[in-house]
Amino acid sequence: MGPGGRRATLDGVPENHFDEPIAARYDDDLADQSAPETLAGMLDLLAELAGAGGRTLEFAIGTGRVALPLAKRGLHVEGIELSEAMVAQLRAKPGGTDLPVTVGDMATTRVDGQFDLVFLVFNTILNLTTQDEQVACFQNAAAHLRPGGHFVIETIVPSLRSMPPGERFHVFHHGPDHTGVDEYDVVTQRATSHHYTRRADGWELTSMPFRYAWPSELDLMARLAGMDIVGRWADWDRSPFTADSASHVSVWRRPEP
């Protein structure tokens, strides 16, 4: 899952899953996904949707993995991020102090002005662990968009088709230094992503809750927020989305009057 990880506690205050230890190693853990050649397709699409000099807002901006190279393309980039530790990592990078970032919950936090593009990548919509929170996130995105502006989400397609009936666990990655296992509850659509990572002093287990949602459910959330689907691809390379796609990049648009 991406930055902005949270869930509501009993008193309604979001719980931050990206504390100082995780924030400190976040960029190292995602080094392969931060390489220029890996980000190129993403940045191309986001810049195209924002338009020349467009105003963009990233929900769960994290350490600036995407926002900083996007800003280098001449866009005005702002962010919302729940974790102050992640924002501190962003601020320590070249150009990191130039990006306006508001600390808060991406489902409810508002910033001033309207934007040409709002985006939320790396499965982070799933860090909102109730349907109501996910609906609120879409509404928040629409509220920030100018008429004609776009909202972009990158997220996984649930892996349930690959699991035998009655099975709850799906191994989504297995390597010498990391094994990832998703644990599903098909009744509630709640799940937990378990990460077993080799560190210098041994193996570490990190578990994070999420709520999976199908593409059609996200489309309904967009409609409730007054937006229409205008594009969906299997990846940032804009390859066709099919029944076998493991992820999707989806684009919705706030209609013009």
Walk me through the structure:
The structure is a single chain. This protein has 257 residues and is α/β, with parallel strands linked by helices. Helices cover 24% and strands 33% of the residues. It contains six helices and 13 strands. The protein has helices at 20-29, 36-50, 67-71, 84-91, 131-144, 215-224, and strands at residues 6-8, 14-16, 55-59, 76-81, 101-103, 115-120, 145-156, 169-174, 178-185, 190-199, 202-211, 228-233, 247-253. It has a seven-stranded mixed beta sheet. Strands 8-9-10-11 form a four-stranded antiparallel beta sheet, with no helix packed on it. A hairpin with a 3-residue loop joins strand 8 (169-174) and strand 9 (178-185). Helix 5 crosses helix 6. The chain is globular, with a radius of gyration of 18 Å. The protein starts with 5 loop residues before the first strand and ends with a strand. Mean pLDDT is 93; it is low at 4-13.
Please give the structural blueprint.
Elements: E1 6-8, E2 14-16, H1 20-29, H2 36-50, E3 55-59, H3 67-71, E4 76-81, H4 84-91, E5 101-103, E6 115-120, H5 131-144, E7 145-156, E8 169-174, E9 178-185, E10 190-199, E11 202-211, H6 215-224, E12 228-233, E13 247-253
Parallel strand pairs: 3-4, 3-6, 4-5, 6-7
Antiparallel strand pairs: 1-2, 7-13, 8-9, 9-10, 10-11, 12-13
